[in-house]
Structure formats: C-alpha cells, structure tokens
Amino acid sequence: MKRAFSMLGILILCHLVVPGIALAETLVSDAFALSGSNRKEAALLNGVAPEEGAGVWKTDRDTRFSAAGTIVCAQVAAPHVSSIAAEIDLPSPSSEVTVQVDVVVSSSEWMGVGFQSKVNPANWFKAENLLWVMLKPDGRWQLWSEGITRSVAMGKIPGFHASDSHTLGLRYDPVAEVAFVLIDGADVSGAHSVKLPGAAIRSAGFNGLAISSPGEASFDNFKVFTP
pLDDT tens digits, residue range 193-220? Predict the structure, then answer.
C-alpha cells in the first residue's frame, strides 16, 4: 500500500514539474452577488472589492448593482451619454490570459470586454485600451486594438437575440502575440496576430455604451484567468 501511494505521489509530482504544463489560475472573479451594505440593489460598483482577486473596481458614471445581481446603468440622462464602465487592476500576464463576462446587449449601442494598460474606464476609444471586443444588438462583434486604432477582426453571431445573455470573451497570448474572440466559450475568430505597444496589460474590464433603457443592458459573471 505504501509503495502504491509513493508511486502515485511521484507521478503527480512529475506531472506538476513538466515544462510547458501551465496550471489554471483565476486572477479576478466576480458574480456580482448581492451581499452586505456595499453589494445591494442600486449600490455603486466603484470601490467594491471583487469576490475573488485583489484590488477594487473602478467605474465611470452610473455603474450599479441591479436587484438581480448584475451590473447595470441605473439612470439614463441621454442615450449617447449614459454607460456602464468598470475596470480592475491585474498583475501583468506573462502567459495566455482570458477575460470574459456575461452580457445582455439589449438596446445599447455596444457592450464590450477587454484588457487595458492602466485603469481608466472613462474612454475605451483611447490607445490605453489595449485589446477589446465589442458586441452589438444585431449580433455583430468586432475585435479592436489600441482603442479604435486598429480593427483586427469582425464577424456575426447567427440567430442572435439582443435580449439573451451571452458570454463574451477575449483570449490573448503575450508570447505568441495572438488574440482570439470567444462567444459562449467557442472560438469564433481564429488566431489573429496582435502586437501590443510597449505598455503591458495591467487591467481588465467591461464597458457598455449608449444605454437607452435603464437596467436592460447588463453585465454578469466577470472572470480573468490563465492559461
């Protein structure tokens, strides 16, 4: 019996130290579950710590918790002003990293997720928004780098309904310098070469523009993980 356990231990140890085998690690995870005084309906997400991971959320405008435990824009002043925007610091990844979030696009202009060189959720069209993907109400998606400097890839989800929830994801390998767009876990883009500028990835987040009906467009289940 002891010999069997010893052999099992050796096999496990060998598996863990084999070069090239990366262990999965969650860097940030937040299901936006309601709890306590700072995670309740209509509470601001700004300054709130994620359920898993370091740092706190930094947001723009009226980014709040909904009664359903999602993140919404609770008030709409004008269709092309109101937005949902949130970012959080990350350790700069040295290997493949994925960011994903559940989105309900609804009547927004677009909803997106991506990586940034620093936390600044005010404007995703700036170059510091290193790599991101947007999803529109008609099911069209588009991958951008350095704000809207370069359109990397685009496509459309067949049979898309803006009122449905979809998991929008982005995977980037900083070593191979390639990016992939993921919809509901499936690679819809294939590998695209993306050489990011000198600034390393230091944050990740989500953004929704031109929210015309408060509470309809939403984000949920945000996660950043490797490999």
Answer: 999 987 789 999 999 987 777 788 999 9
Q: Is the peptide bond before 227 cis (omega within 30 degrees of 0)?
A: yes
Which of 221, 144, 132 lies closest to 184, judged by CA? 221
22-226: CATH topology is Jelly Rolls (2.60.120)
Rounded to two decimals, what is the model's pTM? 0.88
Which tokens go with 25? 């690690």
Residue 71: name the closest of 81, 60, 79 by CA. 60
